[in-house]
Every structure is written in C-alpha cells, then in structure tokens.
Design a protein that fits this description.
Keywords: Signal. The structure is a single chain. The protein is mainly beta and 246 residues long. It has four helices and 20 strands. Strand 6 and strand 7 form a beta hairpin. The chain is globular.
Length: 246
C-alpha cells in the first residue's frame, strides 16, 4: 500500500479563518494511493456541520455552483470550509436519484436497472442523520428507511462491506476523474476526488485499502470538483452540493 499525505488544512484553514478553527475537525489532505493523487476531506460528524444543498430555499431555483451555495451560507452567518458535488444528475439540473435535505425527500429513490454508471447495480445511498452516516445499497436502504437528515443516491457502489463491486476489473479501461464518499472504520466520512483519471477498480481499492472505508459510493466523474477557502476546481454546473461549514 502506498500512502503519502500533504496536510495543509489545519494550518491553512487557521490562517484563512482568522486563526480559529476550534470546534471543527475537518481535515483536507492530498493523499497518494497507488501512484494517483487524491484530494481527501475527512469529516467528523460529531464536530463538523455536513449539509446537502440543491434548491435555494428563497427562490426554489437550483444552485449551480459552489459560489452560489457559499453566498447563501454567508447570508446565514456560516462560512464554507469545503464543498464537493453530490451524485449523478439529470437535466434541470435535478438529482437523478434520491435527494433528501433537512429530512425532506425532494427526489425519490430511483430503481432504474439501465442507464450508465448510476444503474451499474448495486448502487447505493449515502445518508447522514445527526452524528451517524452510512453508505447503503439502494434496496436495503428502502427496507431500512433510516429517515436521514441528508441523503444522496448514486452509483455504482464502490465498496460494500469490504467487497469491491463485482463488475470492477483491475484491467478496466475506463479512466476518468472520479469523486466518491466513504464511511470509514474510524466512524468518519471521507470524500475523495482524484487529481487525474482512474478506473473504478483503482478508485474502489483506494477507498478500501488506503482510506480504510468498508463502504463507499461513487458520486460522479469527469466534472467532479471541490472547493476550499483558497481553491475552487468547478468547471460545470451541479445538482446537489455537499458542504462543510462553520
């Protein structure tokens, strides 16, 4: 296993946020796994405020950019520390699968069995309820009904109970920039965005073996991006944006 971290978040965020990051555990690192560099944001739900955004509550229009969500949070007296796009979406822009905000189901669970990566079954749901989080296969989620505060559905599942998706192959030839989220053995949530093209197999192995996440979900590819106080890599519009704010 190859792991190399360039940790800039603690010192950088302390500087950018006026010397105070107390009460927050957010950590953003550059992590090297099997020769590929990833940006990894580690979220501790006991200390960090993790939220999902799609529709502006005032205008009911979709947020398209990190900057739009950042401005909204600023009006609420919050400062955005990290953001990344949510799951795969349809024209509108509208989430293609389940989307839950503040306990309200804005888009229902999608049981499609055909249509791109989303329907490369098994797919799943990343959900948050208070200090709990999970990555759950979509039909298991339907039966469990965890009643989350925030949730997004996407696909495929990268890792499920420590096992890679059965369709992934080490020799897979589809290489793209990819983003995903995992719930890890230390109880923390980790978002990862690759700096360059990777195949599904390598991306899943990174979550399982380097980040130690037995459950992980693919969020999106090619347009995957993130934002921190000093950087914004967004190039396309989104439908669904995860943020960590203070």
């Amino acid at each position: 296993m190859t792991r190399f971290c360039l940790s800039w978040s603690a010192a950088l965020l302390t500087s950018l946020l006026g010397g105070c990051t107390s009460g927050h555990a957010l950590e953003v690192k550059q992590v090297l796994g099997a020769g590929q560099l990833y940006t990894v944001a580690t979220v501790d739900l006991k200390k960090d405020r993790l939220e999902l955004h799609w529709l502006n509550p005032t205008t009911r229009a979709p947020y398209h950019t990190f900057a739009e969500v950042q401005a909204r949070l600023a009006k609420q007296g919050q400062q955005m520390l990290f953001a990344t796009n949510s799951g795969i979406y349809a024209p509108g822009p509208k989430p293609l699968g389940l989307h839950v905000e503040k306990g309200q189901i804005l888009v229902g669970l999608n049981s499609a069995r055909s249509g791109g990566n989303f329907a490369l079954l098994p797919n799943g749901v990343f959900w948050v309820r208070g200090t709990q989080a999970g990555v759950t296969e979509s039909q298991a989620y339907r039966h469990a009904d965890p009643r989350p505060t925030f949730a997004t559905q996407s696909g495929p599942l990268l890792v499920r109970k420590g096992q890679l998706h059965p369709s992934f192959s080490r020799s897979g030839t589809s290489f793209k920039v990819r983003s995903g989220v995992g719930v890890c053995r230390d109880g923390k949530v980790r978002f990862a965005i690759s700096a360059g093209p990777v195949n599904f197999y390598s991306f899943a192995v990174f979550f399982r073996d380097t980040l130690n996440c037995p459950d992980a979900l693919y969020l999106d590819g090619s347009i995957a991006a993130y934002a921190t106080p000093d950087r914004n890599t967004q190039l396309a519009e989104f439908a669904g944006i995860w943020t960590v704010s203070r």
